[in-house]
Amino acid sequence: MPHPFFRSPPLPITPCRSNHPSPRRIITYSVAGASKPSRDVSLLRRAADLADRSAGCTSPHPNFGCVITRGSSDEVVGEGFLYAQGTKCAELQAVEAAGELARGGVVYLNLEPGDCYGDHTAVSALVQAGISRVVVGLRHPLQHLRGKAIQSLKSEGIQVHVLGEDLQGRQYEEALKSCLTVNAPLLYRAAFHVPFSVLKYAMTLDGKIAASSGHASWVSSRLSRGRVFELRGRSDAIVVGGNTVRRDDPQLTARHGGGHVPVRIVMSQTFDLPEEAKLWNVLEAYTIVATQRGARKDLQKKLAAKGVEVIEFDILNPGDVMACCYDRDYLSVLWECGGGLAAPAIRAGVIHKVYAFVAPKIIGGSNAPSPVGELGMVQMSQALNLVDVSFEQIGPDMLISGYLQPIPDLFPMIPSANEIPSIDPTLSPYETNIISFYKTWDPFGAFSNFSAHPIEMPYENGERTMWPSVEHYYQAHKFVGVDSPVAREFVEKIKTANSPEEAARMGRRLQREHPKLVRADWERIKTDVMYRALKCKFLTYPHLNTMLRSTAGSVLVEASPHDLFWGGGREGEGLNYLGRLLMQLRSEVLQKEASSNFTLTQST
């Protein structure tokens, strides 16, 4: 999807499919005769374009792109991008693609590497490849990662230049905007502590989103609706109001042929919702209804029985709903609501960007609804102006997009990890006796089953085989040992899934759709399967073993808001079995270490 800051068309985005092509490739990309500043700008934008290719394939995450040139020339010899959390980092992909041509080369990164596993894969890959210079578009916006990789590269004698610090001037603004745009969700979340929110609507030339009767199918063209599916695939959640559910009965799925499926959120103050609706089918996507406390308890129970989650607020408002989404680690939210909900969302300051699809139609009607309701403005001088506006023709329609709030450049708003204690000693993401983990880029993200740590484990025939992650191994073993060629096919599909998230989604879906193919003893043995995989992971990687031992005396909590078996839930209501197994493994490791030390002391 083109970015509003690009002055020339970006690379086309490869649609995400279940068999995603390898992101590694060697290209020839040059800027003949370009000066050093213009060369840096072009190649940083190239890195940002690469980073954007992962959007829509998995849950939104920091987007990393890496480009390597031969020496100080313009020839690109290797590149890569992070496909998803728990997959090979962009820097390692680019180094592998470049081979020996990387030695003495220059690396362009849209974002500082996020080495959060303790193994420094991205940094070590660049060091071992013999890179001479690294150009970084942005420091990492997360406090526990900001500046660490840059400092590590400098300590290895590599020259590092950062936009806005070492590279300044108007000539670098284009590159900076590209780097800001591709990670806008992460930057907004870090700066404002709310998810990045986009308001999307389609309207006629006379500003109507439906006829006076309420009929709205279809305002925009099929091509524009395809773009909407792309927007959904880039989002963690989609928000609609009760009117949309009653009037349109939407499904709100991405329909992009695979990849990430966003959560669907319905905001309804009165809970005046139908008992039957497409959104209540949670087999394809999770649904949450946010409502006022005490509203229609009978219907709440019926929807809960269908698997719909109901969250009650004392006073339902967009700000509190977005605070809830922030607590759930959502990065990006798409609002597809009517004008009655869009207006309070804008007034609350939670809408950051607008996508308006304008169709060349006129419908008229004094009572026909418009995309935004009453904002309380009485003079044109009060109108909200979009910044960095972009225009794009999509079939017969015109897409107008822009920002209500500029993308925050977090330099120097967010201090480095070393500066935090001097600013506010109380700043800490965790309580002293509780260590939470969820996303792989968290400080203890390596504890997640989605972390990029392959494990070698025995298979059915006793031979050892390599699994891309603990999550791949666990999900596949729901079907291991079942005497069915279909079950064996499921195992192979899960094993070769492109990312841990896709393995998890595939395993859960197949378990729901084919319960008879799930091994009969699964509920009894699943914790044993998980423990074996965790033990292999933490004994295979010494730095993970050290990290686990360093948490002695702390309670480990897997902070999933949805999985109440493996996770701790939103308010501690979950069973937290993953945290329990890790603490059990930690105890086993520490006991073995103490026993070894005792034996060594006795022998001396």
From TrEMBL:
List the Gene3D superfamilies.
Cytidine Deaminase, domain 2 (3.40.140.10), Dihydrofolate Reductase, subunit A (3.40.430.10), YbiA-like (1.10.357.40)
| Sorted UniProt keywords | Chloroplast, Glycosidase, Hydrolase, Multifunctional enzyme, NADP, Oxidoreductase, Plastid, Transit peptide
Please write the reaction equations for the catalytic activity of this protein. 5-amino-6-(5-phospho-D-ribosylamino)uracil + H2O = 5,6-diaminouracil + D-ribose 5-phosphate; 5-amino-6-(5-phospho-D-ribitylamino)uracil + NADP(+) = 5-amino-6-(5-phospho-D-ribosylamino)uracil + NADPH + H(+); 2,5-diamino-6-hydroxy-4-(5-phosphoribosylamino)-pyrimidine + H2O = 2,5,6-triamino-4-hydroxypyrimidine + D-ribose 5-phosphate
Family annotation (SUPFAM superfamilies): Cytidine deaminase-like, Dihydrofolate reductase-like, YbiA-like
Question: What terms describe the molecular function in GO for this protein?
Answer: 5-amino-6-(5-phosphoribosylamino)uracil reductase activity; diaminohydroxyphosphoribosylaminopyrimidine deaminase activity; hydrolase activity, hydrolyzing N-glycosyl compounds; NADP binding
Which InterPro entries does the record associate with it?
A: CMP_dCMP_dom, Cytidine_deaminase-like, DHFR-like_dom_sf, Eubact_RibD, NADAR, RibD_C, RibDG_C, Riboflavin_Biosynth_HTPR
PROSITE patterns named in the record: CYT_DCMP_DEAMINASES_2
A Pfam family annotated for this UniProt entry:
RibD_C
Q: What is the enzyme's main class?
A: oxidoreductase
Pathway-wise, it operates in: Cofactor biosynthesis; riboflavin biosynthesis; 5-amino-6-(D-ribitylamino)uracil from GTP: step 3/4
**Compartment list:** Plastid, Chloroplast
- GO BP, one example? riboflavin biosynthetic process
Positions of the CMP/dCMP-type deaminase domain: 38-153
Q: EC number(s) on record?
A: 1.1.1.193
Which Gene Ontology CC terms are recorded?
A: chloroplast
Hydrolase listed as a keyword: yes
Q: Which family does it belong to?
A: In the C-terminal section; belongs to the YbiA family.
Protein's name according to its UniProt entry:
Riboflavin biosynthesis protein PYRR, chloroplastic
Q: Which organism is it from?
A: Carex littledalei
